[in-house]
C-alpha cells in the first residue's frame, strides 16, 4: 500500500505535500498487521469483559482453570494452522485428538509408571494418523476436504475400537502436574501454551517453516523454486497430527478421562479459532500465534456467555452468533489489504 | 476432469478421428473409465450385487425401494450442495445438516401430527431455511468469509437456535400426509418420495444444462472474472446458489421427518459431509465449475448401498459397536475417490 504512494511522491510534491512519515509508517504497519491487531483487540475486549463479569477471574485458581480449558483448543488450532498454512485442511484433526487420547488413556490406565510409554504411544498415533492424511492428500492427490473426511471416519472408528465408551483413567501424575501453579499466577497450562508458541517460532525459522508458507502461497511457484512440495505437504499433515496428539494429551490431563465422541466439535473449533486468528484458509498467510490467541478468545467468549447470565437454552445461540460476528469481522479485516476487484467475486 | 486428461491420452487416439477438425478424444473405454458417473454407477451396482449374494433378501423389490428411499434424503439434500460447489469460489455448504434438522423441527412443531397445518408448516420451515441461506450468502459474498468457515459457523448458530426454539425437547410429529408421501405406496408401488426425487432430479438437471441460470452457474464457477466480463451478475448467481442449497436441505429435512416420524436434534448431522462426499463421488470438483447433479444422484445411491451393505453384513453389530463400519466406510470412500477424484500433478 505504501509503495505506490512513495513512487508518486515526487510528482505529487509539487501540488500537495506528501503525508508525514509517521502517518505513512503507521498506515503501513496497520495494513500489514491488521489481522494481528484485530485479534489482539478482541483478546483485550474479551479479557476485560471476563474480568468485569467474573469477580475472581484473576485469582490463581480461576487462572489455572481458564488456561486448562484454553490449552486443548489452542493446541488443536495450532495443529490446524500448520496444515492450513501449507494449503491443506484437515477435517479429521478432531478424531486424531480423540484417538490419541484414547490410546494414551487405555495404555496408562491410571498408573504413573506407564505414563511415559502411554504418552509416547499417543503422540506416535497422532503422527501416524497425520502421516496417513499427508500421504492420501499429497500422494494420491485427493481433495483435502473429502479425503480427510474419509480418514476422519477411519480414525473415529479406530477411537471407538480402542475406547468404546467415554472413560478410562488418566495417571494421577499427569492430571496433578497439569493443575499445578508454577509461580505466583502462572499455571502449568500457561507455560505449555508459551512453549507451544516458542516451538512454532523455532519451526518458523527453520527451512520447513518457510516452505509451509511457500507451498500455501502458491504450490506451482514453490514447485518451480525447487521446494519439495509433496514432502512439505506430508510434513505439514504429520506435524499437524503430532500437535493434535498433544491436544489429546492436554484434554486427557484436563478431564482425567478419555472421550471417543468429541471429534467433530474440536475440528470445527480449531477452524474457527484459526480464522479469527487471521490465518487465510487458502494458505500461505497467517501463523500459529494468531490461532493461539483466537482459541483463547473463543474459550473466553464461551465462558462469558455463561457468566453473563444468558438463559441456558439461549447460550448456544448467543455463542454461535458471537462467533459468526467475530469471524465476519476477521474476514473483513483480512480481506482489507488484498481486496480483489468486485468482479472477481471472491477467492478462486 | 476429462479435459485435463485429454492431452495425456492424445497418443492413444483412434486412427481415424470422426471429424478432422475435432479435438483429439481418448478412446471410449478410457473415457468411460474416467467418467465419475460411470465408475460410481458401476461400483454401486457391484456393491449391490455383493449385498444381494450375501443376503438374497437384499435383492427383493421392497428392499430396493427402501434403499432408494433412504438414498433420496441424501440425494435431495445434496442438490443444493452440488449447486453451491459448482458455483465455485471454494463454495461448500456445511450447514445443510443443521438446516435440514431445523426444517424438520419447525415443520413437526406446526404439523403436530395432523394435516390441517400442513401447508403453513411447510412454508414456515422453508422460510426458516431461506433465512439460513440468506445469512450464509451475505457472510460469504458481503463479508468475504470463506464459505467453509461461514457455513461451519452457521452450524453453531442454527443448532443454538434449535436449542432455543425447542428447549432441548423437540415437540410435534409429522403430518399423516407427509408420512404417506415418504413411506406409503402411491403410484406403481413406488413411494411418492421417489417420484418427488425423480422430479427434482429432472428439474435440476434441466436447470443446470438447459437454462441460462445453469450456464451462468458453471461460468461463475469456472472463471468468475470471465463470467463477470461476459455480463453475468456473479454475486446474484452465487447468492441464489446458497439460498437454493438451504431450501433443498430444508426439503430433505422434511422428508427425513416423514420417514422418522419424530424429530431429534441430531436428525440431519450425518448429512453435512456425506452430501459433500456424494457430490464429489459423482464427479463434482470442489474447485467449482465442473460436475452435475446426475453424478450426485449416483453418489448418494453408492454411499447408501455401501452403508446398508456394511449394516447387513453385521459389521458394526456386536461387541465392537459402530467402529468397524465407520473404518470400512472411510477406506472405501478413499478408494472410490482415488479412482478419479484426483487433482492434477504439479509437474506437467
UniProtKB/TrEMBL annotation, chain A:
<feature type="transmembrane region" description="Helical">
    <location>
        <begin position="91"/>
        <end position="108"/>
    </location>
</feature>
<feature type="transmembrane region" description="Helical">
    <location>
        <begin position="59"/>
        <end position="79"/>
    </location>
</feature>
<keyword id="KW-0812">Transmembrane</keyword>
<feature type="transmembrane region" description="Helical">
    <location>
        <begin position="183"/>
        <end position="203"/>
    </location>
</feature>
<dbReference type="InterPro" id="IPR001851">
    <property type="entry name" value="ABC_transp_permease"/>
</dbReference>
<keyword id="KW-1003">Cell membrane</keyword>
<feature type="transmembrane region" description="Helical">
    <location>
        <begin position="145"/>
        <end position="163"/>
    </location>
</feature>
<feature type="transmembrane region" description="Helical">
    <location>
        <begin position="34"/>
        <end position="53"/>
    </location>
</feature>
<feature type="transmembrane region" description="Helical">
    <location>
        <begin position="288"/>
        <end position="311"/>
    </location>
</feature>
<keyword id="KW-1133">Transmembrane helix</keyword>
<feature type="transmembrane region" description="Helical">
    <location>
        <begin position="114"/>
        <end position="138"/>
    </location>
</feature>
<dbReference type="GO" id="GO:0022857">
    <property type="term" value="F:transmembrane transporter activity"/>
</dbReference>
<keyword id="KW-0472">Membrane</keyword>
<feature type="transmembrane region" description="Helical">
    <location>
        <begin position="234"/>
        <end position="253"/>
    </location>
</feature>
<dbReference type="Pfam" id="PF02653">
    <property type="entry name" value="BPD_transp_2"/>
</dbReference>
<dbReference type="GO" id="GO:0005886">
    <property type="term" value="C:plasma membrane"/>
</dbReference>
<protein>
    <submittedName>
        <fullName>ABC transporter permease</fullName>
    </submittedName>
</protein>
<feature type="transmembrane region" description="Helical">
    <location>
        <begin position="317"/>
        <end position="335"/>
    </location>
</feature>
TrEMBL record, chain B:
<feature type="transmembrane region" description="Helical">
    <location>
        <begin position="37"/>
        <end position="55"/>
    </location>
</feature>
<dbReference type="Pfam" id="PF02653">
    <property type="entry name" value="BPD_transp_2"/>
</dbReference>
<feature type="transmembrane region" description="Helical">
    <location>
        <begin position="148"/>
        <end position="166"/>
    </location>
</feature>
<protein>
    <submittedName>
        <fullName>ABC transporter permease</fullName>
    </submittedName>
</protein>
<keyword id="KW-1133">Transmembrane helix</keyword>
<feature type="transmembrane region" description="Helical">
    <location>
        <begin position="67"/>
        <end position="88"/>
    </location>
</feature>
<feature type="transmembrane region" description="Helical">
    <location>
        <begin position="239"/>
        <end position="259"/>
    </location>
</feature>
<keyword id="KW-0472">Membrane</keyword>
<dbReference type="InterPro" id="IPR001851">
    <property type="entry name" value="ABC_transp_permease"/>
</dbReference>
<feature type="region of interest" description="Disordered">
    <location>
        <begin position="1"/>
        <end position="26"/>
    </location>
</feature>
<keyword id="KW-1003">Cell membrane</keyword>
<feature type="transmembrane region" description="Helical">
    <location>
        <begin position="187"/>
        <end position="208"/>
    </location>
</feature>
<keyword id="KW-0812">Transmembrane</keyword>
<feature type="transmembrane region" description="Helical">
    <location>
        <begin position="94"/>
        <end position="111"/>
    </location>
</feature>
<dbReference type="GO" id="GO:0022857">
    <property type="term" value="F:transmembrane transporter activity"/>
</dbReference>
<feature type="transmembrane region" description="Helical">
    <location>
        <begin position="118"/>
        <end position="142"/>
    </location>
</feature>
<dbReference type="GO" id="GO:0005886">
    <property type="term" value="C:plasma membrane"/>
</dbReference>
<feature type="transmembrane region" description="Helical">
    <location>
        <begin position="271"/>
        <end position="303"/>
    </location>
</feature>
Amino acid at each position: 500500500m505504501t509503495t505506490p504512494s512513495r513512487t508518486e511522491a515526487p510528482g505529487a510534491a509539487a501540488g500537495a505535500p506528501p503525508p508525514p512519515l509517521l502517518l505513512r509508517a503507521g498506515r503501513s504497519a496497520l495494513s500489514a498487521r491488521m489481522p494481528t491487531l484485530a485479534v489482539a483487540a478482541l483478546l483485550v475486549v474479551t479479557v476485560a469483559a471476563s474480568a468485569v463479569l467474573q469477580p475472581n477471574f484473576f485469582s490463581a485458581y480461576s487462572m489455572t482453570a481458564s488456561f486448562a480449558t484454553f490449552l486443548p483448543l489452542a493446541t488443536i488450532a495450532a495443529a490446524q494452522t500448520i496444515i492450513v498454512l501449507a494449503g491443506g485442511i484437515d477435517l479429521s484433526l478432531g478424531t486424531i485428538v480423540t484417538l490419541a487420547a484414547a490410546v494414551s488413556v487405555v495404555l496408562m490406565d491410571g498408573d504413573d509408571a506407564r505414563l511415559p510409554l502411554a504418552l509416547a504411544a499417543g503422540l506416535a498415533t497422532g503422527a501416524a494418523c497425520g502421516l496417513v492424511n499427508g500421504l492420501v492428500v499429497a500422494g494420491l492427490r485427493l481433495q483435502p476436504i473429502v479425503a480427510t473426511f474419509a480418514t476422519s471416519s477411519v480414525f473415529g472408528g479406530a477411537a471407538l475400537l480402542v475406547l468404546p465408551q467415554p472413560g478410562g483413567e488418566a495417571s494421577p501424575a499427569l492430571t496433578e502436574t497439569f493443575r499445578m501453579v508454577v509461580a505466583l499466577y502462572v499455571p502449568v497450562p500457561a507455560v505449555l501454551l508459551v512453549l507451544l508458541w516458542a516451538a512454532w517460532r523455532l519451526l518458523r525459522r527453520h527451512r520447513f517453516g518457510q516452505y509451509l508458507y511457500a507451498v500455501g502461497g502458491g504450490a506451482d511457484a514453490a514447485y518451480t523454486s525447487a521446494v519439495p512440495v509433496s514432502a512439505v505437504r506430508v510434513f505439514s499433515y504429520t506435524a499437524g497430527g503430532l500437535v493434535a496428539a498433544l491436544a489429546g494429551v492436554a484434554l486427557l490431563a484436563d478431564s482425567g478421562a478419555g472421550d471417543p465422541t468429541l471429534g467433530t466439535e474440536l475440528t470445527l473449533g480449531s477452524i474457527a479459532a484459526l480464522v479469527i486468528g487471521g490465518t487465510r484458509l487458502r494458505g500461505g498467510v497467517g501463523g500459529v500465534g494468531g490461532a493461539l490467541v483466537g482459541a483463547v478468545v473463543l474459550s473466553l467468549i464461551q465462558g462469558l456467555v455463561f457468566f453473563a447470565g444468558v438463559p441456558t437454552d439461549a447460550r448456544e445461540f448467543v455463542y454461535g452468533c458471537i462467533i459468526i460476528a467475530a469471524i465476519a469481522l476477521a474476514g473483513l479485516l483480512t480481506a482489507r489489504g488484498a481486496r480483489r476487484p468486485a468482479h472477481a467475486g471472491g477467492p478462486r | 476432469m476429462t479435459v485435463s486428461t485429454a492431452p495425456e491420452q492424445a497418443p492413444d487416439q483412434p486412427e481415424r478421428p470422426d471429424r478432422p477438425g475435432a479435438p483429439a478424444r481418448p478412446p471410449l473405454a478410457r473415457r468411460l473409465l474416467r467418467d465419475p458417473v460411470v465408475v460410481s454407477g458401476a461400483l454401486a451396482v457391484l456393491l449391490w450385487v455383493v449385498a444381494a449374494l450375501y443376503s438374497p433378501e437384499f435383492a427383493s423389490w421392497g428392499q430396493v425401494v427402501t434403499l432408494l428411499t433412504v438414498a433420496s434424503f441424501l440425494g435431495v439434500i445434496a442438490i443444493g450442495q452440488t449447486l453451491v460447489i459448482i458455483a465455485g469460489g471454494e463454495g461448500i455448504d456445511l450447514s445443510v445438516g443443521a438446516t435440514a434438522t431445523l426444517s424438520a423441527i419447525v415443520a413437526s412443531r406446526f404439523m403436530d401430527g395432523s394435516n390441517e397445518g400442513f401447508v403453513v408448516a411447510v412454508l414456515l420451515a422453508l422460510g426458516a431455511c431461506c433465512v439460513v441461506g440468506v445469512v450464509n450468502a451475505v457472510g460469504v459474498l458481503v463479508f468475504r468469509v470463506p464459505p467453509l468457515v461461514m457455513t461451519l459457523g452457521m452450524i453453531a448458530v442454527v443448532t443454538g437456535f434449535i436449542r432455543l426454539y425447542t428447549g432441548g425437547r423437540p415437540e410435534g410429529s409429522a403430518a399423516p400426509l407427509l408420512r404417506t408421501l415418504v413411506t406409503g405406496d402411491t403410484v406403481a408401488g413406488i413411494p411418492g418420495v421417489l417420484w418427488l426425487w425423480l422430479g427434482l432430479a429432472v428439474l435440476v438437471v434441466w436447470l443446470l444444462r438447459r437454462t441460462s441460470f445453469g450456464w451462468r452457474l458453471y461460468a461463475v464457477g469456472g472463471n468468475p472474472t470471465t463470467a463477470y466480463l461476459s455480463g453475468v451478475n456473479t454475486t446474484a448467481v452465487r447468492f441464489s446458489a446458497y439460498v437454493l442449497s438451504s431450501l433443498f436441505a430444508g426439503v430433505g429435512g422434511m422428508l427425513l421427518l416423514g420417514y422418522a416420524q419424530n424429530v431429534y436434534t441430531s436428525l440431519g448431522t450425518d448429512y453435512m459431509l456425506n452430501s459433500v462426499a456424494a457430490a464429489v463421488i459423482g464427479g463434482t470438483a470442489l474447485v467449482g465449475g465442473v460436475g452435475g447433479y446426475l453424478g450426485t444422484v449416483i453418489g448418494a445411491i453408492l454411499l447408501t448401498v455401501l452403508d446398508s451393505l456394511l449394516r447387513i453384513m453385521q459389521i458394526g453389530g456386536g461387541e465392537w459397536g459402530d467402529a468397524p463400519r465407520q473404518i470400512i466406510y472411510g477406506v472405501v470412500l478413499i478408494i472410490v475417490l482415488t479412482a478419479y477424484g484426483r487433482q492434477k500433478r504439479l509437474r506437467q
